[in-house]
TrEMBL record:
<feature type="transmembrane region" description="Helical">
    <location>
        <begin position="246"/>
        <end position="267"/>
    </location>
</feature>
<dbReference type="GO" id="GO:0050380">
    <property type="term" value="F:undecaprenyl-diphosphatase activity"/>
</dbReference>
<comment type="similarity">
    <text>Belongs to the UppP family.</text>
</comment>
<feature type="transmembrane region" description="Helical">
    <location>
        <begin position="216"/>
        <end position="234"/>
    </location>
</feature>
<keyword id="KW-1133">Transmembrane helix</keyword>
<dbReference type="GO" id="GO:0005886">
    <property type="term" value="C:plasma membrane"/>
</dbReference>
<keyword id="KW-0961">Cell wall biogenesis/degradation</keyword>
<dbReference type="Pfam" id="PF02673">
    <property type="entry name" value="BacA"/>
</dbReference>
<keyword id="KW-0046">Antibiotic resistance</keyword>
<dbReference type="GO" id="GO:0009252">
    <property type="term" value="P:peptidoglycan biosynthetic process"/>
</dbReference>
<feature type="transmembrane region" description="Helical">
    <location>
        <begin position="184"/>
        <end position="204"/>
    </location>
</feature>
<keyword id="KW-0133">Cell shape</keyword>
<keyword id="KW-0378">Hydrolase</keyword>
<feature type="transmembrane region" description="Helical">
    <location>
        <begin position="107"/>
        <end position="129"/>
    </location>
</feature>
<dbReference type="InterPro" id="IPR003824">
    <property type="entry name" value="UppP"/>
</dbReference>
<feature type="transmembrane region" description="Helical">
    <location>
        <begin position="79"/>
        <end position="100"/>
    </location>
</feature>
<protein>
    <recommendedName>
        <fullName>Undecaprenyl-diphosphatase</fullName>
        <ecNumber>3.6.1.27</ecNumber>
    </recommendedName>
</protein>
């Protein structure tokens, strides 16, 4: 294990934390950056496991709200419906993720051109959705109709394709279902917790046998830096999208995707 590898893990961890909760595809960023840095992880486990650092950041910042939900869950109807909504939104991607795990990791994760194309395509879609002039029907992430939670969950399945963005797919699904921009982002936060934790557990289960002790410092470095960066993003994101929307992130996707394609053509 070289110092360069640890530095690469730290850089990728920071990128993961900065991009996980904004609709630009953290997976695309760390796969493309890892490609150009020459960073290779065992079985692509690093790219999945460091997402747990971003999940821990969310759990830390939302601890008291989550605890309040746990306390109220046995008796409060609105809390029960919200938890049911999260479960409904989580299940489609969980099922497809288990069924297509090998294809996603071994084919889609290894196709940089596809990632760049999806970044660009998703950027234009996000730009279109963000600039639509529609009066929102729902402004409370904890009180969407169950049908809206299901639609968001189905949109999240698109994020199986690297470059699509899990948060981007769920936010677009929410906005097209009639939510406002802030509640769309906030529900994406809540849905990220079971989705990313589930992906972590399943991927670790599938690849535990190929990991070695040398992988642990690399993964641990990425995990810590992802946590720190994610805390900074989560603290600022909701206020930002409430005021500015998602246009900046749409243009960023298009720029990164275009630069990635140029880099692949010139450098391979």
């Amino acid at each position: 294990m070289s110092e360069q590898t640890i530095v690469g893990a730290a850089i990728l961890g920071i990128v993961e934390g900065l991009t996980e909760y904004i609709p630009v595809s953290s997976t695309a960023h760390i796969l493309l950056l890892g490609h150009f840095l020459g960073f290779e992880s065992t079985g692509k486990v690093f790219e999945v496991v460091i997402q747990l650092g971003a999940v821990l950041a969310m759990l830390t910042l939302y601890f008291w709200r989550l605890w309040d939900m746990v306390v109220k869950l046995p008796s409060d109807r609105s809390t029960q419906l919200f938890v049911l909504g999260i479960l409904i939104a989580f299940l489609p991607a969980a099922i497809i993720g288990v069924m297509a795990h090998g294809f996603i990791k071994n084919v889609l994760f290894e196709t940089p051109i596809l990632i760049c194309v999806m970044l660009i395509l998703g950027g234009f879609i996000l730009l279109w959705v963000d600039q639509r002039k529609v009066e929102p029907k729902y402004t409370d992430a904890a009180a969407f109709p169950l049908s809206v939670y299901l639609k968001i969950g189905l949109f999240q399945c698109l994020a199986m394709i690297p470059g699509t963005s899990r948060s981007g797919a769920t936010i677009v699904g929410a906005l097209l279902s009639g939510t406002d921009k802030r509640s769309a982002a906030e529900f994406s936060f809540f849905l990220a917790m079971p989705t990313m934790a589930g992906a972590f557990v399943y991927d670790l289960y599938k690849n535990w046998h190929i990991l070695s002790p040398d992988d642990l410092p690399i993964i641990g470095t990425g995990f810590v830096f992802a946590f720190i960066a994610a805390v900074l993003v989560i603290r600022k994101l909701l206020d930002y999208v409430s005021r500015k929307g998602y246009t900046l992130f749409a243009y960023w996707r298009i720029l990164v995707g275009a630069l990635g394609l140029i880099g692949l053509i010139l450098l391979g």
